[in-house]
Structures are given as C-alpha cells and as structure tokens.
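Much of the work behind modern protein science is quiet bookkeeping, done one molecule at a time. The protein below has been through that process, and both of its lines are reproduced in full.


***
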Amino acid sequence: MEKKDNKVSVLFMLFSILFCVCLIAANVLETKQIAIAGISLTGGLIVFPVSYIINDCVCEVWGYKKARLLIWVGFAMNFFFVLLGALCDFIPGAPYWTNDAGFHAVFGLAPRIAAASFLAFICGSFVNAYVMSRMKLSSGGRNFSLRAVVSTIFGEGVDSIIFFPLALWGVVPTEELPWLMLWQVVLKTAYEVVALPLTIRVVNYVKKYEQEDTYDKGVNYSIWKVFSI
C-alpha cells in the first residue's frame, strides 16, 4: 500500500506552536484594558497581530494548504484552552480561596464573547491566507511586503466586522463601534508594517533553509480540507 507523504517540517511545527501560544495568550491579555496615546485598547493587541504575521509566513513559504492546517489547529487549541478555563471557573473554589473574582475576570469568558471571538478568528484568518495566496499567484511571487499588508487589512477588517457587533452590540454605544473596529484594523496593520523588516528576514531564511517556495496553482481553497497538506 502506497503511503501518502503528508509530513511537516520541524520549522513548520515551531511556527504552529508559536501560533497557538499567541492565540491563547491573546485570550488572557484581552481581559486587561490598556491605553496607548490616549486610545483605549485591549492587551491582546500586544500579541494577536503576531498570529497574522505567522499566517503570512506559513502561506508564503508552505502555501495555503499548510496555512489552512495551521488555522484549524490554532482554533482547536484555543477552544480547548477556553473550555478548560470555563470548566475550572465553574468548579467551586476551596474554602480558603479568596480570588474567585479575579480568576473569573480572566477565565470566565462569556459565551457570547467566546462565540464572536472564534467566528471572527476563523473568518479573518482564512481571508488573510486566501488573499495572501491569490496575490502571490497574480504577482508571480513579487512584492511580499505589499501582499503581507493588504492581506492583513482584509483579514483584520473581517475579524473586526464580525467580532465587535456580535460581542459588543448593546454593550458599547452604537456610534462607537465603527471607531473601535477602525482603530483595531489600523493599529494591527501598523504593527505588521513595523514588523515587516523582521518578517522579511524570517521568510527569506525559512525559504532558503526549507528549500521551498510554494505557489498555490490549482489548490482547493475549501476551508474544510484540513488534512489535505
């Protein structure tokens, strides 16, 4: 019986681990509100854009199929973490435990917020990977910087359009929602632009090390073919 070659490299595995860590860390950091230059944001802004940078790197080097696997693995690990946090939050604390409120604030993610977060992540991440892949084909592999920025704008835009209305409608004044969405897209894209010199170096190194530079000619862009790598 012929064995299918569906192995992944060590570097891809390391990228996947970092991707999952970023998503899980973002969930925890989102519970803190921060202010940068007078703009109110969540702490997740520190790490969440890194997941889009990793998405770009994986899609650029290994192609859409590997990026699709990465996105679903990240979704599964993040869901598992949130589920464990919710379960532990539900279990009554020990008699001497006095930090229920603090623990709940971090791990007691409301179902509405969790659902909005998961849906926004899946849609935004796949849009980011799709745009990156299609632009690489149409440009013949040129202009990585432009592709990385444009794919982030589309991905983060979809993420924000889905997350904020679903999670915060009726909680935040309606007139404030468009500004929240806009600032998220602008700042996360700016994050990507600032990180571009490092991203380019990493991508070039990985391409050289892996001897791989995938073009997604004829690829099936269905998000459900998880193990087709």
Q: What stands out?
A: The chain has a mean pLDDT of 88. The beta strands are 33-36, 39-42. The chain is about 70% helix and 5% strand.
